[in-house]
Write a structure and sequence with these properties.
It is a single chain. The protein is mainly alpha-helical. 68% of the residues lie in helices and 0% in strands. The protein has 17 helices and no strands. It is elongated and about 95 Å long.
């Protein structure tokens, strides 16, 4: 009598070297009612290995496997219903199967169902459930979940507010390389929530900035501008502010405008500065608005072109 488990083992062993044979083995295991056989055959169909790509067919096989209790198939179904794999999006089915997979201990499902409940994807937001799954994912080693657990603890969203516990999660996420967490650790150092003050804050800002995180670049620029945690360096400050300003950030536009206007860290360029003041004001920066209003009161606008205003 054929053993479907043995057939699946053989299929996995020849999966890469002889995909057609793997399909035959998974098919036979499926015919014998094996949930692993259904799952394996679905994997072959969705990837077009040893057979043609058949996404609807794969979904049906995943469903059969999942309904028989196969948790990886539950996770796959949740993924399929996100609409990201060429299969129609179904928010309710997505939530249902991701939650089943999470309840079955599939760690990859933890952050998925957490996000569903955090943002209210296909259901009412439930921050308590969201936190529970983000924490489980964080404990399983997911860096992004560590950040979310830190955020929710710090803000008291879905759990009791505990800044100390939140910073601990931020610290783990920061060490794992999450730039948003590195930014939070820098702020924690500035606020005295962790030791090290400005020097530690600068180290974290540098790490986050090196990954292109705009808020970290802006704050690092300010540290160079003010000489906090390092020697004052106007050229570095301008360069960082300018990088952030390129994304139309109102605050960075104001700072680069001021530095161009005064010739700090860059060549003095009054006309270029006024263009940036104007754009910053258009974007709602109050300091830029007040600066331009003050110029008008002093009746200097006939000598300086204020771009767009």
């Amino acid at each position: 009598m054929e053993d479907p488990s043995e057939l699946c083992i053989q299929a996995v062993q020849c999966h890469d070297t002889d995909p057609k044979r793997a399909v035959e083995l998974f098919t036979r295991a499926s015919e014998l009612g094996s949930p692993e056989g259904f799952f394996g055959l679905a994997e072959m169909k969705i990837n077009g290995m040893g057979t043609s790509v058949d996404i609807p067919g794969a979904v049906e096989l995943y469903r059969k496997s999942a309904e028989m209790g196969n948790t990886p198939a539950m996770f796959r179904l949740g993924s399929m219903y996100t609409g990201s794999y060429g299969y129609p999006e179904d928010k309710e089915q997505c939530r249902f199967w991701f939650e089943k997979a999470a309840e079955g201990g599939i760690e990859l499902a933890y952050p998925e169902i957490a996000a569903i409940y955090f943002y209210g994807y296909g259901t009412e937001p439930d921050p308590v459930k969201a936190y529970r799954y983000y924490e489980k994912s964080a404990e399983a080693g997911n860096p992004e979940a560590m950040f979310m657990a830190g955020y929710m603890k710090t803000e008291g969203v879905g759990t009791e507010k505990d800044e100390k516990a939140g910073v601990q999660w931020f610290g783990k996420a920061a060490v794992a390389g999450v730039p948003e967490a590195q930014f939070r650790m820098a702020r924690a150092a500035e606020d005295g929530l962790i030791e090290g003050g400005d020097k530690v804050a600068m180290q974290w800002y540098v790490s986050a900035s090196d990954q292109g995180f705009g808020p970290a670049k802006f704050n690092l620029a300010t540290m160079y501008y003010e000489g906090r945690g390092t020697e004052r360096d106007m050229e570095k400050a301008f360069s960082l502010y300018d990088e952030v300003a390129s994304s139309d950030d109102a605050d960075a536009l104001f700072m680069t405008a001021r530095m161009k206007f005064e010739g700090l860290g860059t060549e003095q360029d009054v006309e270029g500065a006024m263009k940036r003041f104007g754009r910053s004001a258009e974007l709602g920066n109050q300091l830029a608005i007040e600066f331009l209003s003050d110029l008008r009161r002093k009746q200097n606008t006939q000598f300086i072109k204020i771009d767009g205003l």
